[in-house]
Amino acid sequence: MTSNSEFISRLRTLKIAYDEDLLTKDEYDEFRLKELDNWSENQEEKKSFWGNLWDKACKFGSAILRTMIKPIVEGTLLLTGSIIKLISS
């Protein structure tokens, strides 16, 4: 995993090589895009402790809300169904 300073250094090196005509425009673009892809993959993999904790809290909270709301929704559907049966009779 490369740090941001290493990433910037690599991009600068590519730019210098291109400016000195050591790389063609196509080569420069290809290598620059590879560096950007590698950097973005590393950024996605690198998640902070608090980010992981937040994700777990969201999943846990979602599960709690789902178990609390499910009986209410099912009860409402049963009640609505009973009312519709009474009206249609």
Question: How many alpha or pi helices?
Answer: 3
User: Roughly how many Å is the radius of gyration?
Assistant: 28 Å
Largest sheet: none
Q: Count up the domains.
A: 2
Strand content: under 5%
Q: Average pLDDT, to the nearest integer?
A: 83
**How much helix is in the residues?**
over 70%
Characterize the overall form: elongated
Structural class: mainly alpha
N to C succession of SSEs: HHH
What's the number of extended β-strand segments?
0
Detail the poorly predicted runs: none
Distance between the termini: 70 Å
In short:
87% of the residues lie in helices and 0% in strands.
Q: Which descriptors would you attach to this protein?
A:
87% helix; 3 helices; mainly alpha; 89 residues; 2 domains
Topology record:
Layout: H1 4-19, H2 25-45, H3 49-88
Explain what the structure shows:
The chain is mostly helical and 89 residues long. It folds into 2 domains: 1-46; 49-89. The protein has 3 helices and no strands.
